[in-house]
From TrEMBL:
PROSITE patterns: CNMP_BINDING_1 (PS00888), CNMP_BINDING_3 (PS50042). CDD domains: CAP_ED. InterPro entries: cNMP-bd_CS, cNMP-bd_dom, cNMP-bd_dom_sf, RmlC-like_jellyroll. It is found in: Cytoplasm, Cytosol. SMART domains: cNMP (SM00100). This is Cyclic nucleotide-binding domain-containing protein 2. Essential for male fertility. Plays an important role in spermatogenesis and regulates sperm motility by controlling the development of the flagellar bending of sperm. GO terms for molecular function: cAMP binding. One of its GO terms (cellular component) is cytosol. Keywords: cAMP, cAMP-binding, Cytoplasm, Nucleotide-binding. It comes from Mandrillus leucophaeus (Drill).
Length: 573
């Protein structure tokens, strides 16, 4: 009996465990913090078996218990569950290190970063959850660690799911700081577009740990920067503090992307430290200069081996080529008109149109009306552009520097007061060279300068005219031609280094970047071999992505033909 009772208790425990697991599967489907399934089971994440008692199939999905990448670490969650006064310095420093992936957190000074890591708490909300409601008092501000939220003007945030292009904030952004600092009402509603993880700072902890004093130091720094600018010389301190309270400092490292298109950005940027570059993604295939340049160099490709000296034609060959090029192209349309005249005469119809050619003159020449290209020996895929045919591999793009923005300059207002027809709508990229900037929303700035004629007159003088795409393409080709000539000349003047007869065999390293990846080689455009190096593509706004190049290697004459004084390597006559 005891044995039967023990077996009964064991079976009861198994049933309870099965029911608990089923509750976990159904109720905690969004639980993603711990990885309890081995990777070997990922190939078949769903399995099932037939339950004889229930007379049904039980299905178990192991993917419900797998931790996904990008989520906030469980160790940091345990630290944030403690009270701020209970957290040790090592734990605060560990949280601070984890939060360095957030751009908005990294923009704060180091003392303020440590204080924020001390008072933060972790929250996770699902889709359609309203985080901030318009019109309510601000009691917290948030950092987005994972997920996406939308900004709306309604109370429940439902318009974000109906709008095809809602205003979104993603990982690395923060919101609500101004409202908690000045105890103001929320201006908009924030709603989660998906499962989102937040790091929250409450108003009580914010003031209890004296974070407001560190924030006030940053505000004083912004006030002194704006006060030194000639643009706001006529403003009072009270009005200037309104601008300071609505602005925010952001810091960017060298080579970091600030904006993909600052012309369409909703912010105005004041460069407070360092500098940045304005770049333009140039589609070389849309430039007439590039078309002419490519075909002029491709004409040097013939049936002989590439990269060889193009010998001079013999007198007989030059005469034959002259005969072919100078032979007039005939226009036989006059013969067709004569045939039509005879046909209409037989049918009894009259033909009164005069033909411009007579029997004693030669047929009419087409002359320059025919735009024919000499037959090329190029066998490669072609694409049709607005300017004619172009080899598919030659349809590339390049990043060109348009302007350098120095300390004290303003971005986002260079076309604010121009008519719509005169505005430059080209997408312009803003790249950091190691700088610090102060951002403010355009609508807030326009409210502050409304009816201020003196500031508007100063802003009108800030209009910057950027060069056209054709001018930048010509500059790119000139720089490329000079670089090619310089390398050829250096190779001719400097004697090549003699390599050992038996060079050691070195294994090739696997590298992502290859110098050939950003060089377009028109010399090998006839060859069918595929490149063994990666090709970098850049997305465009409304067009397919472009291959990015930094230089173009083209077939050319040897430098001895261009400069006869260089006859042999290393000798200058």
């Amino acid at each position: 009996f005891r044995r039967d009772r023990g077996l009964y208790q064991f079976a009861t425990d198994i049933i309870v465990m099965i029911r608990v697991c089923k509750m976990f599967r159904q109720g905690l489907r969004g639980f993603r913090e711990y990885q309890i399934i081995e990777s070997a089971h990922w190939k078949h994440p769903i399995f099932s078996f037939w339950d004889k008692k229930m007379q049904s199939r039980v299905t178990f999905d192991t993917m419900d218990f797998i931790a996904e990448e990008g989520h906030f670490p469980p160790k940091a969650i345990q630290i944030m569950q403690k009270k701020p006064s209970w957290r040790t310095e090592d734990e605060i420093q560990a949280v601070c290190n984890i939060l360095q992936v957030l751009d908005s957190y990294r923009n704060y000074a180091e003392p303020l970063q440590l204080l924020l890591a001390k008072v933060m708490r972790f929250e996770r909300f699902g889709r359609r959850r309203v985080i901030i409601k318009k019109g309510q008092k601000g009691n917290s501000f948030y950092f987005i660690y994972l997920g996406t939220v939308a900004i709306t003007n309604d109370e429940d945030g439902s318009s974000a799911f109906l709008d095809p292009h809602p205003k979104l904030l993603q990982k690395g952004s923060c919101f609500g700081e101004t409202d908690i600092l000045h105890a103001s009402l929320r201006r908009s509603t924030i709603v989660c577009m998906e499962e989102t993880e937040f790091l929250v700072v409450d108003r009580e902890d914010f003031f209890a740990n004296k974070l407001d004093q560190e924030v006030q130091k940053d505000a004083q720094y912004r006030f002194e920067f704006f006060r030194k600018m000639d643009l706001f010389a006529s403003w009072s301190d009270e009005k200037l503090w309104q601008l300071v309270n609505m602005s925010k400092i952001e810091r960017f490292s060298y080579g970091q992307l600030i904006s993909k298109d600052f012309g369409e950005s909703s912010f105005i940027m004041f460069i407070s430290k360092g500098s940045c570059e304005v770049l333009r993604l140039l589609d070389l295939g849309a430039s007439p200069s590039y078309h002419r340049w490519v075909w002029q160099h491709l004409e040097l490709i013939d049936d002989r081996a590439l990269k060889t000296h193009l010998r001079e034609y013999s007198p007989m060959e030059r005469f034959k080529e002259f005969q072919i090029k100078s032979y007039p192209l005939q226009d036989f349309s006059s013969l067709k008109l004569l045939h039509l005249k005879k046909a209409w005469g037989l049918q009894g119809t009259s033909f009164s149109r005069k033909i411009g050619t007579s029997g004693d003159t030669l047929p009419k020449m087409l002359g320059p009306k025919i735009q024919s290209r000499p037959v090329q020996s190029i066998k490669c895929a072609m694409i049709n552009t607005k300017l004619g045919e172009l080899p598919k591999e030659a349809a590339v793009g390049a990043y060109m520097k348009v302007h350098t923005v120095e300390q004290g300059e303003i971005l986002g207002l260079h076309q604010a007061f121009l008519p719509e027809g005169e505005c430059d709508t080209r997408p312009l990229i803003l790249m950091s060279l190691g700088n610090e900037l102060i951002r403010i929303r355009k609508e807030i700035f326009y409210e502050l300068i409304d009816n201020d004629d003196e500031v508007i007159k100063k802003l009108l003088k800030l209009n910057i005219a950027f060069p056209s795409d054709e001018d930048m393409c010509q500059r790119f080709l000139q720089e490329n031609s000079w670089n090619i000539f310089r390398k050829d000349l250096l190779r001719l003047l400097v004697e090549p280094r003699q390599s050992p007869p038996f060079p050691p065999i070195r294994p090739k390293k696997k590298e992502i970047y290859n110098p050939k990846s950003v060089v377009l080689d028109l010399c090998s455009i006839n060859k069918m071999t595929k490149p063994r190096y990666p090709i970098f593509m850049a997305p465009q706004k409304y067009l397919p992505p472009l291959r990015i190049v930094q230089a173009i290697k083209a077939p050319r004459y040897k430098i001895q033909e261009l400069l006869p004084q260089y006859k042999s390597a290393g000798v200058l006559i």
